[in-house]
Each structure stands twice: as C-alpha cells, then as structure tokens.
Design brief:
single chain, 353 residues, Lipase, subunit A, 3-stranded mixed sheet, 7 helices, disordered N terminus
Length: 353
C-alpha cells in the first residue's frame, strides 16, 4: 500500500510540474469504463425540451471518463442553497431562476431586465405599447441580452443593465444575432478599470458590429483573435518594428479604418489618430513631470474620447472649454457649441448631426 501511495504521489507531482499524462493518457477512459460501471446520468440532458433541461458537464470521476448531467429545475421545483444540514440536491435552478431562501423552491430572479419585461407585459395587456416596441430579452442570469432591435430599422449592442453600447447593424429579421463581446468588454474596461488609472486605456479594437477586430495588439506585438470571443487564434504574431499588420493571416483591409500607406517605412503602427492623440498627450505629461513642471491641472483627458473602433468620439472640448461636435476623424461638424455651466453643455448630443 505504501508503494502504491508513493507511486500515485509521484504521478500527481509530475502532472502538476511537467504535465505528465500517465494517468489520463489516451485510451485510459475506455479501459476505465470497461472495468467500472458508470452511474446512470439524469435524463434531462437527453430530453432537453421545454419541461426537461440539463447541462452536460465533466463528470466527478477519474479523468472525467463517465458522462454527467446536471438537471436544471423549473420554477416552483424544490432546490437547495447548500450549507450544513441543508442536504444536497443534484441539480440547480434553471436559467433566469434562483433558489428562494425561505420556500427553498426555484423562483424567477428579481432583476432590472425581468422588471422591464413585467412592465412591458402589463402595458401590452392594456394595449398601450408602441408600434415598434419589443419585449426586452433577458439572458440566463436575468440581465439584458447582448443586443436589441428596432424592427425594420437597426439592431444595436447593449450592456447587462440595458444601456446602449457601441455596435450597430441593419435589422434583417427576427433570427439575427449580435454577440457584442468586444463592445461589452470595452464598456467594462471603461466602467471598472479606467477610472482608477492615470491615463485612458487604449487596448481593445472592435468592429462596427461590436465584435472583436481580428487583429489585436499589445504594445508592439500584434496577433490574431476570434472575432466573437476575443481568444487568441493560431500562433502567428508580428512585431510592428519590422512587420506590417497586413502580414498577419487574419488581417482584413476593409476592417482597417486607418491603413498604412504603401510607401511607409518601418517601424509601423496599428493605431488611429484618436489613439495617437492620447499617446501624444501622455508623452507630453510625462516629459513635463521630468522637467519639473506642475501638471495637476493638465492631466484631464475629457477632451479626447475614442470609440471602440479607434475613431474619435462625437463630442470634444475646445481650447475655450466649450463642447463641440466632431466626426469620426476629429473634424469639427458645423459651428454648434455648448459653453460651460449651461444646460446645453450637460445635455450635449451630437449623434443626430
């Protein structure tokens, strides 16, 4: 027994340190299932209809050799919150449901999106909903779905709280889908990370539909990503000091809003005028600090706002402190401006120009 325990310890140690595959080698599960009887899985995963659903997950057996189904309980069914003396329920409440602490049954989650659905249903029953108004769609956590549509017009990305985000496409029918992964990640960076940093975060590059641009860069190194998930695809990378972004297999000219001219010499850049404006101001602030200047009143980046695709935001602040409208290239639109400390300044909207 001691020898067997020691051998097992050695294999486990090797697995952790050098990714040893002695235990879960190819063909192990075939022999394991021949020598051992797998427990019968819940039937919900094989049914998966309106009344019986489940999640197929790795089984809690050696090397996950056996199949495993986690049932999803319907509204009103008994459930368990876990904890001492609570017992164990093999399964969990289904999508959009949670286990009530008092009744120990699955109930509908109380979320902003579900409240909006209830409000729509009540108004629809009274016949007071708008012609183009649609019932809000919620995800499995009760948050707003990744996008919403205005029938016969457009579909656009939205946050978990239902706020409109960057990313828009034409409405083509009820079966279209917008993942909006890049747009949502950009929003979270702006909301949770950027406020605590000295300089704006200019990292992710999105396309006009809210997906990830297939070419992403960290510092001077660029690589390919999955446009839906943002995960790295393949092993190809380039160094902008010597290579053009177009040398990547995933590069698409139609998605590069600011392509490099053919006569440009290295080093190259995969950036935009808006991102360059941020970089230039960062360098100016850092140089001023090194020169001993007080920059406490010069560190605001409120006058520079970049969209997730690298273009300029539609509002900027001029040298007089007034808000003005600009296009995606940073060029002023018409002569409208809103002066500080006025209602127009706080409610500036350039989206319709």
């Amino acid at each position: 027994m001691a020898a067997k325990s020691l051998l097992l310890f050695i294999c486990v140690t090797q697995t952790v340190i050098v990714s040893c595959t002695l235990l879960c080698e190819e063909g192990f599960c075939t022999k394991f299932r021949q020598d051992n009887t797998c427990a019968t899985t819940a039937r919900e995963c094989s049914i998966n209809n309106a009344t019986h659903t489940g999640l197929t997950l790795p089984s809690p057996t050696i090397c996950n050799c056996c199949p495993f189904c986690l049932p999803l309980f319907n509204e009103g069914m008994p459930c368990s919150l876990g904890g001492p003396g609570d017992g164990v329920t093999i399964g969990r409440c289904g999508h959009g449901l949670t286990c009530n602490n008092v009744t120990r049954t699955c109930v509908r989650m109380s979320t902003k999106c579900h409240d909006a659905q209830d409000d729509y249903d009540a108004r629809h029953a009274q016949g007071v909903t708008g012609v183009l108004e649609r019932r809000p769609t919620c995800d499995v956590r009760g948050d707003y779905a990744t996008y919403t549509c205005v029938p016969s017009q457009t579909c656009f990305c939205q946050s978990e709280e239902g706020d409109r985000l960057f990313g828009e496409v034409l409405f083509t029918g009820n079966n279209q889908y917008m993942p909006c992964g890049c747009s949502r990640m950009f929003h979270k960076v702006e909301k949770y990370i950027s406020p605590g940093l000295r300089y704006p975060v200019a990292g992710l590059r999105c396309t006009s539909d809210g997906n990830f641009n297939p070419v992403q860069c960290i510092d001077r190194v660029c690589y390919c990503v999955n446009t839906i998930t943002g995960e790295v695809v393949g092993t190809d990378t380039i160094n902008l000091d010597t290579q053009r972004p177009s040398s990547l297999p995933c590069y698409k000219e139609e998605l590069d809003l600011f392509p490099i001219r053919n006569d440009t010499e290295p080093p190259y850049n995969y950036t935009s005028p808006c991102y360059e404006s941020i970089r230039e101001k960062e360098e100016l602030i850092e140089q001023s600090i090194r020169d001993g200047f007080n920059v406490d009143f010069f560190t605001s980046f409120s006058s520079i706002s970049c969209m997730p695709d690298g273009t300029f935001g539609r509002i900027t602040i001029d040298s007089n402190g007034s808000k003005i409208c600009i296009n995606e290239r940073g060029v002023r639109i018409e002569d409208y401006e809103a002066r500080p400390n006025t209602p127009e300044f706080n409610n500036m909207d350039c989206s319709k120009l």
